Amino acid sequence: TYFINFAPNSTYFVPEWNNFTSAHTIVPPQEIMLQDEFGQPSNIIVKPLKRSTAPKLDWGTANVGGLGPDDIPVNAYNSFWATNTYATIEEIMVARLLFSGLDKDKTYTFRAFGSSSQASSTVIPGKIKINGKYSNSVNMIGNKNQYMILEDMIPSTGGTIEMDLIPDMPKDVNKSVRINYLILEERSQPPY
Questions:
Q1: 114 Cβ contact partners less than 8 Å away, ≥ 6 residues apart
Q2: pLDDT in tens, 76-125
Q3: Cα separation of 124 and 121, whole Å?
C-alpha cells in the first residue's frame, strides 16, 4: 500500500508518506518514486501531466482547508491540490497523474480523497477516471470519509496508468475539484 499526500509546501508533509508539493505548477513537473507503507522503495513513479492540446491537462491551486477520517494524519487531509477552474465534466480539460513502473502482473486500487472544510467554498463534486472507467462521485464540501474509488485497475503493457480527476457537474466559473490524498493498493492478479 502506498500513501500519497498532495501539499502546497513542505510544511504539510506527512512523515513516512509520499509527499508532493505544489511543484505541479512548474515545467517539467515534480515526480516522485513511491515508497510503500513500510518505507520500502518501489519502481512506481508518479507525476502530474501538463498538455496544451485537447484534452488539455492542467492543475489549479495547491492550498489547505480540508477535513478527513480520524485514522489519517491531519496534514494529509488538510492540504490539497485542485483541478484547474476550467476543468469540465465534458473533459475538455482534466487534472491527470501518470503512474509508471507498475507491475503489469498486478492490479491496482485507487482510493482518492477530496474534502473542503468551507461550507460556502468554490468546490464541486468530483470523480476519478482510469482506463475509461469512472469512480463514484464525491461531494467534497464537509466530506470526512467518502473516497473516489476504482478497484482492480490493470496497467498497460508498458506498466502505466493515467488517473484523471474531473468535475462531476457542468462548468461553473471559478469552481474546482480537490484531491487531498491518495491510497494506492497493489494486488497480484488472480490466475486465469
A1: 66, 80, 123, 126, 138, 140, 143, 148, 165, 177, 178, 179, 180
A2: 999 989 888 878 778 888 899 999 999 999 999 999 999 988 766 678 89
A3: 8
92 CB contacts (<8 Å, ≥6 apart)? 54, 55, 56, 86
Please name the amino acid found at residue 118.
Q
pTM of the model: 0.93
Q: Which amino acid is at 57?
A: L
pLDDT at 122: 76
Selection from 14, 18, 15, 13 nearest residue 2 by Cα: 18
DSSP the chain: -EEEEE-SSGGG--TTSEEE-GGGGSSSPP-EEEE-TTS-EEEEEEEEE-BSSSSEE-EEEEEE-----TTS-HHHHHEEEEE-TT--TT-SEEEEEEEES--TTEEEEEEEE--B--TT-SB--EEEEETTEE---B--BT-SS-EEEEEEE---TTS-EEEEEEESSS--TT-B-EE-EEEEEEEEPPP-
Hey, what amino acid is at 30?
Q
